[in-house]
Amino acid sequence: MQGKIALEEHFTLPETRNEMSRFSLPGTGEDLKRRLTDLHDIRLGEMDKFGIELAIQSFNAPGVQAVPNVDNAIELAQRANDTLAEEVAKRPDRFAGFAALPLQDPDAACIELTRCIKELGFKGALVNGFTSKGDMETVIYYDLPEYRPFWASVQELGMPLYLHPRNPIQSRLQSYEGHPWLEHSPWAFAMETALHTLRLLGSGVFDDYPDVQLIIGHLGERIPYDLWRLDHRIKKSPQGIPAKKSMRDYMQSNVHLTTSGNFHDPTLHCAMTEIGADRIMFSVDYPFETTADAATWFDVSDISEADRLQIGRNNAVNLFKLDLT
Fold first, then answer.
1. Whose CA is closest to 279, among 247, 315, 303?
2. β-bridge partners, 256
3. What's the mean pLDDT when you consider all of the chain?
4. How far apart are CA 6 and CA 285, in angstroms?
5. 237 Cβ contact list (under 8 Å, min separation 6)
6. Which of 157, 189, 294, 307 could be joined to 303 by an S-S link, Cβ 3.0–4.6 Å?
7. Multiple choice CATH, 4-319, 3.40.50.2000, 3.20.20.70, 3.30.360.10, 3.20.20.140
8. What average pLDDT does this structure show over 77-92?
9. What phi and psi values does residue 53 have, to the nearest 5 degrees?
10. Predicted TM-score (pTM) above 0.85
């Protein structure tokens, strides 16, 4: 399929390239570092080859969320956003940006989000999971009351927020001890992001700000598969849940999924059945996944051509208010 739009695609600054030692195959760590700092060479060439018209870029995880000093987090977010804006300006026909946000300070995050959307022309924000503040063992989720003004700002600006994974902090990794292959993207990313998403849904954030749109990747971080049971058990034992609606209601009105890093027909079919084809968008998760794997799977996946066009392009055009000719 030509004209696809991708939106979980990552870059980093040369001085903040993450440690890639867990990628054990020879050469993969260095290759990732090279691809993370490149936008206009390898990345653009693969987009051309595999039919991706536009890719929305975001600052790589854990990014600003793992900077416990507030002033340093604000400075890094501004620098990452300015750098991305400069790169997007070179090829605005092929690239767009998501804002990195210093959620260590909700007020500063609102200011930076407003700047990025109104001045830099970004299409929303991508936040790399929970935020650390003060020290690296602090975990701050965005359902807390002090983040209500931030969600009000997201709603007012009218652009979505992508909740991207990060690994749990060290003190919460006991259940993974001796099994490092379950950390990060194979399992821990999904569990952490699903929990954060469900906290937001259950907290009443989307009752207070019903127009806010949240995006999660990897075809829903396992949530669609267990959505019926989740609502079934909460209904039997609500235990004071603040949310006024079911989890399914919020997933179908306030949450969008992407195909990033989950290139499997049965999983896609489940997400389409539970959430709806109108709330799913194509993505790669570049460079941690290959453009070839994502695109060659999606282009022949077992769905109708109408759904392929909707998921591959039209849903993103509508959500991000894109003017593509």
1. 315
2. 215
3. 94
4. 9
5. none
6. 307
7. 3.20.20.140
8. 97
9. -80, -40
10. yes
